[in-house]
Amino acid sequence: MIIATDVNPLPQSIEKIASSFGAKVYIPEESLKILDKKEYICAPAKDSKVVIEDLTVQIQEGGTLILGFTGNGLIGPIVANTLIDQIPDVKEIGFITSNYLPPISVFYAGVLKHPFRILYSPQYNLIIAICEVPFQVNKAYNDLSRTICNWALSEDVKAKEVVIFQGIPQRGIIDEYPVYYAAEDNMTDRLEKFEVSKLDKGIIVGPEATVLNEALTNRLNAYALFTPVLEIPTPEGAASIISVLNKIYNLSIDTASLIEQGQEIKAKMLELAQKAQEYQQQQQLPPSKEYTRYFQ
Question: What is the pTM of this model?
Fold first, then answer.
């Protein structure tokens, strides 16, 4: 019989138990840290890490991690930035680094920002991570997802769930932006209550996919929200997703400005299409199938 301990020196209580059973004792060279003990939950990453700068903020157990990655329609960053702008107590607490981050810097009003920031709202117990640069190396995704999930499950966080967003690319003018979901089995009933339609079949690509796959192997609950998007930023789609988040997390985020921006983008697209067709007529060129198909 072997009795193992995770601390060094050997506690007297363990020594007595081993002695009473005549068992051998395994003692580590040094006491294991909490994160070392949690490796069985989510393997640690090698090329990325979470850095928490503001240690005064205590994250409450059972929070939701909202991840806003760049992608089709820039849905993730638009949703995350809107939440950050309107949730009054949200505070930047750290960032995520990776050896695979592209050589891009981000700044707002002349102030440099880390391209992959982490913020927290105690009022709503929401952790918002926003990545405003695309990862161009696919092998970065698995490493990144392990870093995110490992931190989310750590003793300092103990998050309950993670949500990601993806746009469904559409050609032409989009008049409506329904929101769909894909989730783990234990979350479907909850999401149905908020009148979100389920996508029967499909695939998710990019860093969002690896985070979801990693969550399937650990204790984090995970789900994804989808909406139609253009091949350009689609604020109206983001507004639809935020409306769903308002219901799920009892938020009161105003989406009027996003809808207005979307309508302006739509009007400019129509104007450009009309000018292109007028130019074709003036040059007596055959109409472009690409324009007519895209802007029908």
Answer: 0.76
Q: What is the CA radius of gyration of the chain?
A: 24
d(CA 196, CA 179): 6
pLDDT score at 81: 93
d(CA 100, CA 79): 24
Helices (H), ranges, 126-255: 140-152, 188-192, 207-216, 235-249
- Distance between start and end Cα atoms, the chain: 75
Residue pair 10/25 in contact (Cβ under 8 Å)? The answer is yes
Mean pLDDT by 10 residues, the chain (296 residues): 65 69 67 43 70 91 96 92 96 92 88 94 97 83 90 94 95 89 94 90 90 92 95 91 97 93 76 68 57 38
CA distances from 67 to 64, 96, 102, 209, 212 (A): 10, 12, 18, 12, 11
Is the previous residue joined to 178 through a cis bond, with omega within 30 degrees of 0? no
Reference 49, options 181, 124, 154, 201; nearest CA is 154
**In order of start, what are the domains of the chain with their CATH numbers?**
2-32 (no CATH), 48-260 (3.40.50.10900)
Q: Can you list the pairs that 22-25 forms with residues at least 24 positions away whose Cβ atoms lie under 8 Å?
A: none
Please provide residue 187's backbone torsions phi and psi, each rounded to the nearest 5 degrees: -110, -10
